[in-house]
Amino acid sequence: MGLFRRKKKNVSDTTTVQKTPSKPMSERTHFDLVETDNDAYLTALADKMLSGIPLVLNFEPLDIDQANKAVAFLSGVVYAARGEIVHIQEKVFLFARHDVFDDGSMETFLKDFVE
C-alpha cells in the first residue's frame, strides 16, 4: 500500500454537465452612468468586475481628463485580471474578465450594441 491510491471511477465522473447560466447576460451585467472619477467609486466598480460581474459603463458625463483617469484605472484592472475591454459606442465600454466570454452569451448580447 502506497501513499496514494487510484480513485475509483464513479458513473458521475464520466458524465459531463453543461453549465447554463441561470440569468440572461443582461441581468448578470452591471450598467452604470459614470458621473465621477472618485477613487472609492472606481475601486468598487473594479471589485464588481473582479468578482465576475461584467461592467457596461457610460463615461459621457465626465470631462476628458476624468474619463481618461477612469478608463486608465479600469484598463489596468482588466489587464491584471487578463480580461477584455470592448468598445461599444463612443463613450461606452464593456470591462469584463475573460471567462464571461466562455459560453458565448456575451457575444450574443453585444451584437445589438457594438457599432
Descriptive report:
With 115 residues, this protein is α+β, with helices and mostly antiparallel strands. The protein has one domain (25-110): SepF-like protein (Translation Initiation Factor IF3), CATH 3.30.110.150. The chain is built from 5 helices and 4 strands. It has helices at 11-14, 25-28, 39-50, 64-80, 105-110, and strands spanning 30-33, 55-58, 84-89, 92-96. It has a 4-stranded mixed beta sheet. Strand 1 (30-33), helix 3 (39-50) and strand 2 form a beta-alpha-beta unit. Helix 3 (39-50) packs parallel to helix 4. The longest helix has 17 residues, at 64-80.
Globally, the shape reads globular
Assign the CATH superfamily: SepF-like protein
Total domains, how many?
Answer: 1
Q: N-to-C SSE series?
A: HHEHEHEEH
> What class would the helix/strand composition place it in?
alpha+beta
Main pleated-sheet profile: 4 strands, mixed
Number of helices, where a helix is a run of at least 4 consecutive DSSP H or I residues: 5
Give the mean pLDDT.
81
* Overall radius of gyration: 19 Å
Briefly, what CATH class? Alpha Beta
Please give the number of β-strands.
Answer: 4
CATH-level-2 architecture: 2-Layer Sandwich
**For the terminal residues, how far apart are their CA atoms?**
64 Å
Helix content estimate: 25-40%
CATH topology: Translation Initiation Factor IF3
Unreliable segments of 5+ consecutive residues: 11-20
Spatial strand order of the main sheet = 1-2-4-3
Residue fraction in strands: 15-25%
Write a concise synopsis of the structure shown.
The protein contains 5 helices and 4 strands; from the N terminus they run ααβαβαββα. It has 115 residues and is an alpha+beta fold.
